[in-house]
Amino acid sequence: MLQLRCLCVALPLACMLVACSTVEVSRFERVPSERVAHAFIRSDADFARYTAIMPGQVSVWTPTQEAGLGASALARLQVLYDEALSAALTDDGAYTLVTSRGPGVLELQTQFIDLRATVDPNAIRALQRRYSFPLEAGRATLVVELVDATSGQVLAHIADVEAQGEYAVVIGPEMTEVNAQRALARWAAVLRAFLDEAAQDGAL
To answer: d(Cα 1, Cα 72) in Å, to the nearest integer?
Structure first.
């Protein structure tokens, strides 16, 4: 069960590279969780309202001018991510995945923040202003925003920091499908557990 602790968080949350959500200053509740490294849920969010999940698009952010992934690699990452989500969320019929926005749809906006090659503290501080959780140089962080697909309002954001270069096999040039599938499957299972806990008072 999630234990909630109120924390005033001055957003903005980051607009994803592929889609922007409603950004506002609001009261979020920090959620100590064994599932993810950092989690903040909007205090008035009611996850029982949502009956379906839209995977949304995956993006990769790097602090340099170099692209994190080429277009074809990013497209393949999207396919692998969608497959991992489908297996984790729908195999037992607990959740429904959809491809379009509408009432009762919770959209996932997913971004890998790649700071593995970053040593400039100023660059990290500039990016840090977007987030309410600490970013770590030399590591990659996976951020997922849970968004009301009708209003675009951010209901929660959660972050998972890589352990032992886990996301290097997902967003790096050394990516192989087998290793990427393994890492994404682990994350999808974590996300499923988090959603189950967040929706303990009702079904998504």
So the answer is: 40
Q: What's the CATH code, domain 5-198?
A: 3.30.160
Domain range list for the chain = 5-198
Mean local confidence (pLDDT), 134-154: 88
Cβ–Cβ < 8 Å for 18, 147:
no
Q: Report pLDDT for 172.
A: 75
Cα gap 90→167, rounded to integer Å? 24
DSSP secondary structure string for all residues of the chain: -PPPEEEEE-PPPPPPSS---B---EEEEE---SSSSEEEEETT--GGG--EEE---EEEE-SSSS-SS-HHHHHHHHHHHHHHHHHHHHTTSS--B-SS--TTEEEEEEEEEE-TT---HHHHHHHHTT-SS---TTSEEEEEEEEETTT-BEEEEEEEE-STTTTHHHHSTT--HHHHHHHHHHHHHHHHHHHHHHTTTS--
Contact predicate 7/32, CB 8 Å: no
Mean pLDDT of 59-82: 80
Cβ atoms 143, 111 nearer than 8 A:
yes
